[in-house]
Amino acid sequence: MKLNVYQKNGKKLTKQIALESKVFGVDPNEHSIYLTVNSEMAALRQGTHSSKTKGEVRGTGAKPWRQKGTGRSRIGYLRNPSRVHGSKAFGPKPHKYEKKVNRKVKILARKSILSQKIADNNFMIIDELALESPKTKEFIQVLNALNLEGKKVTVLVASYNDNVFLAARNIQDVYIVEATSASTYDLLDCEVLLAEKLGLTLLNEQLMVKS
Asked: If you ran DSSP here, which 8-state letter would residue 12 be given?
C-alpha cells in the first residue's frame, strides 16, 4: 500500500511512502474501537468523589428518646439520612473506573481507525512539519496549503517540537500528539489525520511489533 507525501507548501512529492497493509489495510472492527475508547474514557475519571456515612458525620450516635411511649415517631439516631445534617444513604466512595481491555484488542482498534481513515481519504502524510518560529500564523499557512482549514485535525508528529506545539495550541480543532503516544480516541476524534512521514514510520513499526 502506497500513499502520497506532501510538503508544507502543499506540493505533492514524486516519491510515495509504502505502508504495511497489516496495519493500514485491515478490515475495521467497530467493536474493538468501542471497547478501547470506552476504557480510555473511563480511565480519565478521577473517582475521588466521597460522601459521609453515619459513622463519619458530626454528631452523636445515641438514641435521642426511647422507642415507645413518647407519642413521637421512633428514631435510632439523629444523623440518619432522612434528617437535616444526616449522613448519606448509599453515597459515593472513592473507587477506580478502570475497564480492562486486552492488548490485542487495543492494537486492533488503532489499526481499524487508521485503515478506515485511509479508506475514507481522510489521511494525509506530510514530509516534515518543522516551523521556523512558534507563530500561529505560520502553522495556519501550512493548514491552508494542505486544504485543511476549518477541519478538525489530529497531527501525528515524530517527536515533541516546541515551535509546532506552541504554534498550534491556540488553533481550534487542531491537536498535536506524538505518533507513538496517540491513543485510540486521539485517532478517532478528528476529521482528518495528518501524519509526519517519520512519525508514521515509527507508528507502523510500533503496531507491527505489538501485533
From this structure: B
- Can you read off the three cell numbers belonging to residue 125? 502524510
Say if CB 189 and CB 173 are below 8 A apart: no
Q: Which of 40, 35, 182, 34 is nearest to 97 (CA)?
A: 40
Which stretches of the chain are assigned E, i.e. beta strand?
2-3, 17-18, 123-126, 153-157, 174-178, 192-196
Say which residues have a Cβ less than 8 Å from residue 27's Cβ, sequence separation at least 6: 112, 115
Q: Which CATH number fits domain 2-45+101-210: 1.10.10.10, 3.40.1370.10, 3.30.70.20, 3.40.50.1970?
A: 3.40.1370.10
pLDDT digits (tens, 9 = 90+) for 55-114: 899 988 889 999 999 999 999 988 999 888 899 999 999 999 999 999 999 999 999 999
Q: Do the Cβ atoms of 23 and 208 come closer than 8 Å? A: yes
